Amino acid sequence: MKLSLKYLIFSSLFFIVGVSPVQAQEKIDKLILSGPFAAVSNPLIHMVESGALNDMAKEVEFVTWANPDQLRASVLGNKADFIAMPSNVAANLYNRGVKLKLLNISVWGVLWMVSREDGLQTLADFKGKEIAMPFRADMPDIVFSQLAKKQGLDPKKDFNLRYVSNPLDAMQLLIMRRVDHALLAEPAISMALRKTKSFPVKIIAPDLYRSVDLQQEWGRLFERESQIPQAGMVALEKTLKNPALIKRVNEEYARSLQWCLDNPEKAGEMVAKYIDLLTPEAVTDSLGVTIFKSVKASEAKPELEFFFKQMMEETPALVGGKLPDDAFYFEGS
Question: Which CATH number fits domain 5-108+230-328: 3.40.1190.20, 3.30.40.10, 3.40.190.10, 2.60.40.420?
Answer without folding.
Answer: 3.40.190.10
